[in-house]
Amino acid sequence: MTRVERAGNHPARRMGSGKRFAVGLSVAVVCAAVFTAGAGNLYQYTPEELTGPEQPIQFNHQIHAGATKDGNLGIPCLYCHGPAERGWNATVPAVSVCMGCHQYIKQGRTPGSEQEIAKIHEYYDKNESIPWVRIHHLPDYVQFKHMRHVQAGVQCQECHGPIQDLKRVYLVPQTRYTKRSFFLPTAKLEMGWCMECHLQRGATDDCVACHY
Amino acid sequence: MPEIDRRDFLKIAGLTAGAAAVACKEPVHNIFPYVHQPEEVTPGIATYYNSMCRECPSGCGIRVKTREGRPIKIDGNPDHPLSQGRLCVRGEVGHMRTYDSARFAGPMKRGADKALVSTTWDEAQSLFVEQLKKAAGKAVFLGGLETGTLDALLEQVLPAIGAKHRLRFEPYAYESLRTANQLVFGTEAIPQFKLGSADVLVAFGTDFVETWLSPLSNQLGFSQARSEGRGYAVFVGPRLGLSAANADQWLAPNPGTEVLVALALASEVAKRKPGVPESLKALLAKYTPSSVAEKTGISAIAFERIGARIANADAPLALPPGVEVQGTNAARFTAAVQILNVVSGAIGRTVVFGPDHNLGKLARFQELSELAGKMRGGEVGLLMVHGSNPAYSAPQVGLADALRTGNVFTVSFASAPDETAELADLILPDHTAFESWGDAEPVRGVRTLQQPTVRPLFDTRATADVLLDAARALGATVPAGSFRDQLVAAWGGRPSFDAALGKGGEWKDVAPANVSVASGVGAIDFEPSPLAGNASDPVLVVYPSHHLYDGRLTRVNVLHEIPDPVTKTMWGSYAELHPETAAVLDIDLGDVITISTDGGQVTVPAFPHNAIRPGVIALQAGRGGLPKDPNAPMEPHSYWRRNVVGVNAFSLIPGKLDAQSGALAWLSTHASVANTKGRAPVIRAQLTFDQEGRNFGAAMTVEEMEKHGPALPGGAGEAEAEHPEHEKPEHRAQPLPKQGDAEHLETKQYDPAADAHPDSPYRWGMSIDQDACTGCNACMAACITENNIAVVGPENIRIGREMHWLRVERYVEVADEHEVDVRHTPLACQHCGAAPCESVCPALATYHSKEGLNVMIENRCIGTRFCSNNCPYKARRFNHWSYDWYVPEPENWSLNPDVMVRAKGVMEKCTFCVQRINGARDVARKEKRTIRDGEVVTACQQACPSNAIVFGNLRDPEAAVTKLRVDRRAYRVLEHLYTRPATSYLMNVRRVEEA
Q1: Reported confidence tier of residue B747, pLDDT bands at 50, 70, 90
Q2: Which long-range contacts (CB under 8 A, 24 or more apart) does A51-56 make?
Q3: Three-state SS string across B561-629, please?
């Protein structure tokens, strides 16, 4: 994965635009060939990234959080990720939270679910933590607070994608060409992407809101 | 056609080139959830526990901030009567001892080749029991001060395992005070000295801000008594230490004759005040000022003036001597001070018996000497050492030699290596204070609980449990259950234990006790005994370390790097002497000298400075402990982790005792000094104590202050204290504008609250009271732990790379018999309204936020350092290395996750604790309101034991900080440069003696 490395480049908000049409045009022409070769790949996610990493337990968000009309359980996100509403981190629930239901539900309806649920019991009985692989990772110099966003009414899906429909979690690509960055797409969990939303909603644009 | 700007171009060019090369994978990060999440813990949200500080015996209540089960910040417990929400420099970093990477990972024993090898607890425990059997009742337990359940349990368990003899050893054991109280009042109790209600204070070499009795509550009281120019303090002693620098007069009598000063003052007071006990009259008539003037070197007029001041005071207080002036007459000297308290009427008013300090059971130094003698004589079979390090802090008694003979099997319960543990045959490491249960009653009526705030990091066991198990293995009857069960039982079972745990303890008022002066006091012979050694040599003064106490904190790097409050030196020992003495001895700054006495010899760099009496050479005790970690990596910026810093000044004190009290005579000898002609670097933070007329730290006299009446709007521009005698234009190439010269810049009209966005409800600002500030460095320690500030080591400090966001500037204007005017100016980023740093940043990494903060976005910084160049306050720090990235496990566990760890190549500085501002904003937003005054408390403000720092919103007219900004003493540092600082200072108050 390359994105996290690049997150250090901070595509900060442009501080006013100079009229550099001519320069821009010529540079664009010079770079055109290079760009098509390179930038085409820029936000292409590898197959591995698209499916997300292999997790110790094949947890299926669709069954747990998917819509009930499709026969899923429709558990609200905050049932397991409660601290998203009151803390900085959404947190992965404690093993005991899984066990709250799964001490009774030992057999799911997808094939192989029995083995996966048995793994929870195994971790729980051994009094061991489940080593989930982290997917949403921000650099240390970003202080992101879930509660501020949840309290402001931002839906989980706005950042995490259609998480209720994911069988395996991955960083949902949301490559898009924004007004500010027309020439290049802005990708997931990058500052330009954050700022786009912040500016649209009139949220803070102070650097020190997140960087300290 | 869209624009392409420089950024997009660079992005494309760089990424195209790099696209093929970026096949490398990101490391896998795991998330480990709890199995059972504790009810009170939510990952990402701090949990606070009330506990007790164990970094010195004063037992202050603390509130430990933990994140995910790790203590990261220590504050005072606001409910605790001793700490009142504040904490000292040592307490602020106490948790660093738990995170010491060189701690014992488990029990150890001597292997075949006499080297320490790891062992298991089962094996270690059986070896311990076997040796206890072998010692057959000839075991001795040498521990520190314990006043709670552990103390009571040891009294029960130790006889059961054959340890009939027990010593509670502390290097600062107040033996003389106990004996003196016995002589004068017929009780050994150590009373409360109420600095908070004393309007005239006379300290006899008492380091009441640093280590004496209960330094934190002393300082709380001291600042309380001196608010708004009230209070008056006189310091008598050879050294202008931290406590002396906060006094208003400094008498430096000939070393050894301080007792005469106390008596002459008592005599002067007795002359003016009725009610002097008959038994003292004859004695006091003997010691008139004129009769002692010659011997002490203090003019008779000084005695008369101070005597009159004491006699006219409502609540005078004389503080008994600290260890630095404790000589062979220590008990009689202390008795003389208590006589002064008697004649001045302080007893019962500022010296209150009843709620006594629980130090009475401490062993006298003499008992340690006797123990060493017994060990040499083969009367001791097994020695258990817990919570003390006598091989380091009492080298005079020859305990180390006795241990080396091999006749005594030594068991050490130290959790980290120290000098005594190095000589031990078996090491059964105890938990640290942050991992263990405990309680104490440092002062009668104040019972404080200590609870673990982190799971033991290493394979350690509570010593009480080890002893209980050993007793059981020996077949003795001891209480059932673990130590914790005993603790719960001692607190009256679960419900009341839990209630006390939530509060931090239990405190109730203890009725004061009446004391009367014993007969026979008048017959004591007070004549001082002469000092040993060659009279032409300087007198050796050894004083306790403010940062390292008796050396127990020597492994905490932060404390070595925080500049000493007096000399502003760091990382090592420096022999302090007056420039006149240095000239006589032909010693320059940084010359390596050897100091030798009957006790021993040390080689140290010399540091001549004015804050010490001529004819004296002073060394700080507590330094020169073991190297931090002999296996530390040899990184160029962290090799200091291996090195010993400083020398052990305890080793210079000859083993002479005060015959009456059994105390070690710290001040007992002249020392011969020789210049080796070698040179050593003097690592220091501040190169001069002279302001060169810049009036950085300003002052005004009490009269000037009173002329203003109550606080005036518009600041104190007119009231600027001018010091023409300190103006030294010859030192300057260009005349600098003076403070107050800048009318054309309209400094007086400017409204600091304007320096924020019109829509913002906030303009953050700070006010620092220089008169309250004692220069104790607690704020620095708090800032360091809150903001993950790196320790850079002496090599980096030498080339000006210190990283402290907050420093305490010290300026010595006057320090003599008539006046002490030492100004302490805590200086961090001033968050200027017109900040010179912002305009020069090419990367917009520093800018003015809407709320008036001068913000530094470290991850945007490209490291040009222009901002630092342009900052007139020198408040910005540059990361020359990625210091904190190399901190070994588990030391890095103390990092605050709410603040980023800066990498090399970026600038950093004080943020006004923006993480706390944002934290308060989270709460306020949720409740749909603005942040209230007092909701944001910066780390420095929270720690300050003098209540000198106030932080708040300058746009709130009712905020405390807004009112202080227009106080009659308010001024802004270097405001004539038109920086429009957000931090205002309150001037020092000079309590000048009327001519």
Answers
A1: very low
A2: A51/A168, A51/A170, A52/A135, A52/A166, A52/A168, A52/A169, A52/A170, A52/A171, A53/A133, A53/A135, A53/A170, A53/B28, A54/A133, A55/A132, A55/A133, A55/A168, A55/A169, A56/A119, A56/A130, A56/A131, A56/A132, A56/A133
A3: HCCCCCCCECCCCCEEECHHHHHHHCCCCCEEEEEECCCCEEEEEEEECCCECCCEEEEEECCCCCCCC
- B388, burial (CB in 10 Å: exposed 0-12, middle 13-18, buried 19+): buried
> Going by C-beta distance under 8 Å and a sequence separation of 6 or more, which residues neighbour residue A115?
none
Distance CA B990, CA B461 (A): 53
Q: What is the mean pLDDT of chain B?
A: 88
**Residue B324 in this model has a pLDDT that exceeds 50:** yes
- How far is it, in rounded angstroms, from Cα B464 to Cα B469? 9
Residue A20 pLDDT greater than 60, yes or no:
no
Per-residue pLDDT tens for B660-712?
Answer: 999 999 999 999 999 999 999 899 999 999 888 778 888 888 888 887 765 44
**What pLDDT is recorded for position B41?**
86
Distance CA(B574)–CA(B620), nearest Å, equals 8
Contact flag A212-B899 (C-beta cutoff 8 Å): yes
Put simply, the answer to whether A18 touches B9 (Cβ < 8 Å) is: no
Would you say B574 and B607 are in contact if contact means Cβ atoms under 8 Å apart? yes
CB distance A139–B43 less than 8 Å? no
Question: Nearest CA to B884 among B939, B783, B803?
Answer: B803
Q: How far apart are CA B453 and CA B95, in angstroms?
A: 10
Residue pair B941/B951 in contact (Cβ under 8 Å)? The answer is: yes
| Model pLDDT, residue A168 | 86
Rounded percentage of chain B residues whose pLDDT exceeds 70: 91
Grade residue A17 by pLDDT with cuts at 50, 70 and 90: very low
Measured at the CA of B574, the angle between CA B573 and CA B575, to 5 degrees, comes to 125
| Token pair for B210 | 């640093």
Contact B367, B149 (CB under 8 A): no
Chain B CB contacts of A209 under 8 Å are 918
ipTM of the complex: 0.81
Best B1, B6, B11 residue to mutate vs chain A (most A CBs within 10 Å): B11
Residue among B91, B41, B138 at smallest CA distance from B552: B91
Q: Which two tokens stand for residue B777?
A: 């460095």
Displacement of CA B814 from its chain's centroid (Å): 25
pLDDT for A79-132, tens place per residue?
Answer: 999 889 988 888 899 999 999 999 999 888 888 889 999 999 999 999 999 999
Give the per-residue pLDDT at B339: 93
Q: Which two tokens stand for residue B270?
A: 């007795």
Angle between helices B494-503 and B483-490 (to 10 degrees): 90
- Helix, strand, coil shares of chain A, percent, nearest 5, are 45, 0, 50
Give dist(CA B290, CA B603) in Å, integer. Answer: 41
Between CA B868 and CA B809 the distance in angstroms is 18
Q: Looking at the predicted structure, is the pLDDT value of residue B243 above 60?
A: yes
pTM of the predicted model as reported, rounded to 2 decimal places: 0.89
Query: Could you tell me which of B250, B219, B260, B995 has the C-alpha nearest to residue B610?
Result: B250
Angle between helices B6-19 and A21-38 in degrees, nearest 10: 20
Q: Which residue carries 């320090």 as its tokens?
A: B815
Please enumerate in sequence order all residues whose Cβ is within 8 A of that of B505, keeping only pairs 6 or more positions apart, or say none: B50, B52, B61, B80, B439, B446, B447, B448, B449
Tally of CB atoms within 10 A around B456: 18
Residue B743's pLDDT is what?
46
Q: Where are the beta strands (DSSP E) in B409-525?
A: 409-412, 426-427, 438-443, 446-450, 505-507
Contact state of A147 with B31 under an 8 Å Cβ cutoff: no
Residue linked to tokens 């083969």: B378
Q: Residue count of chain B, please give it.
A: 995
Contacts of B16 in chain A (CB under 8 A): 31, 34-35, 37-39
